[in-house]
Amino acid sequence: MNICMVSTFDGTTDDFMEIFNWAKDQMSESATDMEVGVIREGKVITMGKINDMEKFQQIMTSEEMRAWDTKHNCVDVVYSLEQQ
After folding, report:
1. DSSP-H helix ranges across the chain
2. Which of 7, 19, 38, 74 has the least CB density, counted as fewest CB within 10 Å?
3. How far apart are CA 78 and CA 60, in angstroms?
4. Residue 83 — very low, low, confident or very high, per pLDDT cuts 50/70/90?
5. Is the pLDDT of residue 50 over 90?
6. Rounded to 5 degrees, what are φ and ψ at 52?
7. How many domains does the chain have?
8. Which one-letter DSSP state was computed for residue 5?
9. Rounded to an integer, what is the distance from CA 8 to the centroid of its chain?
């Protein structure tokens, strides 16, 4: 499944890239082709292909991710994408 995730948060792009790189390392087998597009400070779009949704969800709801989300008031909106 291909996804697009729009993340809005209190913080900098560098703050986001730290947690993104941590998550990307954790999900090397569950997600591929993960890319980040910066809209502005505090808002990014992440796109990628999810190969194992269960593992992906475990990472996205991990203690580390929840702590980061809480600290930065992060709200993620996730869309499923289909090639036309």
Report:
1. 13-26, 53-60, 63-71
2. 38
3. 12
4. confident
5. yes
6. -140, 95
7. 1
8. E
9. 11
